Amino acid sequence: MRRVQPRRTWFDLLSAVQFLTRLRVPTPPYEQDSLARAVKFFPLVGLLIGSGSAALDRALTPHLPALVVALLVVVYMIAITGCLHEDGLADAADGFGGGWDREKVLAIMRDSRIGTYGAVAVVLSVLARVLLIASLPQTHVSAYLLVAPVLSRWTTLPLSFILPPARNSSADQVDGQGARIARLTTSGSLVIGSVLSLVMAIALLRSHALAPVLASLVMTLVTALYYRYRIGGITGDCFGATNQLTEIAVYLCGVWI
């Protein structure tokens, strides 16, 4: 068994990279619980994404205005993730904005078309990230570009640990990825992912780490309570929405401080 464990861990990491990014990696063997096991590595994948953002910022900053650099960094983040979280934010905004009861909210989220609430939410998300990144102190830009994707991907761990899937089993098999991890994240995965996130945040931000960490905790708690109240659980779109809101909150902490 000890010889199998490192191989399985490697497969879990590949599953996390494959799910969260458009990067080409070897395809791991499919297992029903592969994504639920992979969530512990979501913060690590966030660090991978943030590394590209920080490298791009450092390469472009000497040659372009801060606002243009920030725009290109956000475009990179959208491209490398395949609009995964932006799509979730849009669907969640349409659902919660246009639906009055649980069934209507879930029905709107299932619709692949984007509505007014979704379009406005995505525009505001992109605008907020561009402006906040451009406003970060230059000496701390790289650190926040690394930490924000880590903490925003970390939010999936507590959300999937405490919240059940909002849809029933048969619907979830058709509709999305939320049921593949909702209430299936183990306490071990939660601890591993949380420790990784905290260590990375402290190592990169040092004395400035407290505010982003607290902001991520608050955003996770508030959205979890909201999802539980409105739809009785969580969907894949909700994970994406919390991810986007948390990333913005981390950048805001950097600008505020």
Automatic annotation (TrEMBL):
It catalyses: alpha-ribazole 5'-phosphate + adenosylcob(III)inamide-GDP = adenosylcob(III)alamin 5'-phosphate + GMP + H(+); alpha-ribazole + adenosylcob(III)inamide-GDP = adenosylcob(III)alamin + GMP + H(+). The chain crosses the membrane at residues 38-56, 62-84, 114-136, 142-163, 184-203, 209-227. The keyword Cell membrane applies. Its cofactor is Mg(2+). One of its GO terms (biological process) is cobalamin biosynthetic process. Pathway: Cofactor biosynthesis; adenosylcobalamin biosynthesis; adenosylcobalamin from cob(II)yrinate a,c-diamide: step 7/7. Keywords: Cell membrane, Cobalamin biosynthesis, Magnesium, Membrane, Transferase, Transmembrane, Transmembrane helix. The keyword NAD does not apply. Its EC number is 2.7.8.26. GO terms for molecular function: adenosylcobinamide-GDP ribazoletransferase activity; cobalamin 5'-phosphate synthase activity. It is found in: Cell membrane. InterPro entries: CobS. It is a multi-pass membrane protein. GO terms for cellular component: plasma membrane. NCBIfam families: cobS. Belongs to the CobS family. Joins adenosylcobinamide-GDP and alpha-ribazole to generate adenosylcobalamin (Ado-cobalamin). Also synthesizes adenosylcobalamin 5'-phosphate from adenosylcobinamide-GDP and alpha-ribazole 5'-phosphate. This is Adenosylcobinamide-GDP ribazoletransferase. It comes from Silvibacterium dinghuense.
